[in-house]
Write a structure and sequence with these properties.
Prot_kinase_dom, two-stranded antiparallel ribbon, ATP binding, six-stranded antiparallel beta sheet, alpha+beta, Transferase(Phosphotransferase), domain 1, nucleotide-binding
Amino acid sequence: MEALSNSKTDKNIQGKENFNPNNNSIKKEINGKCDTMIGMNKFFVSMNSKVYRLERYLGKGGYGEVYECMCEATKKIYALKRENILQTKIPNEIEVLKRACECDCKQICKYIDDGRQDDYLFVVMTLLGKDLSKLRHERKTKHFSTNTSIRVGLLTLSAIRELHEISVISRDIKPSNFALGINKECRNIYIFDFGLSRFYRNQDGSMLPVKHHSIFRGTTRYASLRAHKKLELGRRDDLESWLYVMVELSTGALPWRTSKKMKKKKNQLKEEVYRAKLRIRLDDERKKFFRNSLPILDYVFMMIDGLSFEANPPYEQIQYMFEKLMLEANVKWDDIYDWEETRTILSKQTMSVDGITSTSAAMATYSRCRPVLFQVATTTPTASTESSSLLPKFHIE
């Protein structure tokens, strides 16, 4: 939101050094300016000649803005993302979203439409709820409970796997790129924002050639070691980033700081974070890193670290470990999440018009991506050929 401020806005905000982004008056002022910005061009016409009216500003990304919009023909509400044509990742995002639609993906944000208007390219997609970063920061503890963390882990892993199954890697896995659905899908978690993603396989299933040198891609806080070394990224790197995400969601913090307030050059900051990520691979530091997180994450971390670039990630084994922990912790899919206030409110919000709860919808989505677990339980729990009897026993505090 800070990027939306201009000199006039700054003068109107007294005590800028005490700027509070949660101040409602400031929010209204910024939203008012956003409304003025879109007022001159409130309607977007797609390639299919459908007209979308911008309703309200939702947020700003690395390359453009996102708005809530309404299709004039159907009166349905969607999200519209627009980026300047001179600096845009939207064509890449459209390609991924269309592939996901063709494959009937259940946890990838749905493609609706796209087009060009003046100096902007835009894409219309399903509107989502709050992202995991916002939900975590709304907690007093700044982290999710064990109950919620386990289910969030399963759903986010399922979403990443679904993305990989359509031959796409995200290269920017982070909490703010996962969000809740709305209405009857409000208990499902979706992955979105594919500006940095790439296809890693050809249509015939063969792997695309690997570049020996690349550039840094992703978010410093969650980037894999290979990203820091500016190497080509693969599926294992998405999972490494996901592991960092899960530690943060379940503990509230990561041992490296990447705050925008830090007066350090980007390269210096990345180097410090890289060294911190190397340190957590030492025995004592690793124990400290996983001390308050889910008890399986240390083991999952070693599994991911042991993967080669082209290896098939052990989704089933990781999933099995989460489900085993779920049973031991007596976690049920219809338990309330940390962000749901009461079961009464939940029942009102999650019942769809045809009587199917969003819990059932989330379970159906999750089950669709799930293999037969009892077959998995008798196979390897790691990237090697170890016996399933070596799976560690987990203790819930």
